[in-house]
Amino acid sequence: MQKIAAIDVGLKRIGVALCLCAHIVSPQEAILRKNRDQAAREVDAFLREWNITCLVVGLPKGGSSEEEMQRRIEHFVGLLDFKGEIRYQDEYGSSVEAKEMMQGITRQKRDGKVDSMAAKVILERFLDGKRSGNG
To answer: How confident is the model at residue 90, as a pLDDT?
Structure first.
């Protein structure tokens, strides 16, 4: 069974989610981003801790800053010391979907819960694509 993680790379926080068995995806505690190198070290440590074999990275498709964000995200992924498979997944609307899922559960604090829920949405989309033969 492949162990898969997803990250939603933001400027302040990196949302993280895991899929360790079947198609059960669970959001994890977000990584606070003080700087790129520190964030990359923490993502690497997370991937090692869970023995992740495939990393799914959210990439925004559409929108005025698509190219700039794609460049930043790909640069960040390049800082990782991860030797497994890296896949990119369209993350368009994942943060909005995550906020809707969490309404009434938590206030929109800046604690990273929404970021990790967005990573969960990204990973579920990736898994759905694999199941339907698009991944």
So the answer is: 84
